Amino acid sequence: MAKSYExxxxxxxxxxxxxxxxxxxxxxxxxxxxxxEKDVQFKVMYCGICHSDLHQLKNEWGNSKYPVVPxxxxxxxxxxxxxxxxxxxxxxxxxVGCLVGSCRECENCSVDLENYCRRPTWTYxxxxxxxxxxxxxxxxxxxxxxxxVVHWPENLSMDAAPxxxxxxxxxxxxxxxxxxxxxxxxxxxxxxxxxxxxxxxxKAFGTKVTVISTSASKKQxxxxxxxADSFLISRDSEQMQDAVNxxxxxxxxxxxxxxxxxLLMLLxxxxxxxxxxxPEKPVELPVFPLLMGRKLVAxxxxxxxxxxxxxxxxxxxxxxxxxxEIVPMDYVNIALERLLKSDVKYRFVLDIxxxxxxx
Length: 359
Known about the structure:
InterPro entries: ADH-like_C (IPR013149), ADH-like_N (IPR013154), ADH_Zn_CS (IPR002328), CAD-like (IPR047109), ER (IPR020843), GroES-like_sf (IPR011032), NAD(P)-bd_dom_sf (IPR036291). This is Mannitol dehydrogenase. With about 350 residues, the protein is an alpha/beta fold. It is built from eleven helices and 17 strands. It is globular. It folds into two domains: about 5-165 and about 325-355, Quinone Oxidoreductase, Chain A, domain 1, CATH 3.90.180; about 165-300, Rossmann fold. Helix 3 crosses helix 4 (about 195-205) and helix 3 crosses helix 9 (about 305-315).
């Protein structure tokens, strides 16, 4: 007999889920836990569509647990708080990103790096402490421990939900690797959901920004709309040659397999190439360019809760929002098809609050 997700917990919930590797989403009745003493329950208003949702829906990373209710860029309004909740009250605007839990005891958790906990609880496609599946933000309500909830600033539009993944994924490495100093020259590889956020944050930090892309058609957009200072076509060997040894750091947001030797050549001595995209095959790492300039290749994944709040507050202060296309819930499968073809500037956001209708 099929498991009844509708009766697993006391609170009735409704969302859209994929049941198999075909990845198509359709309406899904399930349930959420009762709001515990440290929990915040909130009505979901907006949820971003992240490229990783696409991977998980189709089990492209080999770890999907069906049914999958995706969504980890979630913004909503608090409807109930537990008796020991200290930071939130009913009516507050809140956000939840990729994490809804961690061990809270390890070395990483103790220094606000819950994102690098070895036992994280992801917002969806993970397991709660009681062994039940976690379900994400393509749904009407969420229940989450207050530690993993951020305050959503009043002056920040709620549809800027992609800040909670695309935003923190680019903000965190710029800060940690010291690529946030005014006057530095930063390269951003790829101009999609992550890339356009990297450009906006890097410019807000006062750096000079060069966008590196295979698509010449994105030049006008990068410079005129997003404020990049220059644009490099990575397939143009002459342009790339002219830019050798000019960059202090590079944020590489591309998830497709691509060569990194040309990027390493663009770095000055002591330059840093930080990977935030996740190609499915290993990258080829030539060592000589690293030796010849004491260069660094690194990786970075989202951010801890303290830094995520800091990022959202910084975005509100500097009026940094993702470029989004807001779509109704029943458009989600078309949106995912378009995302696969990179047919969006630069992030789809589901208008959950107004369009998630129970059939």
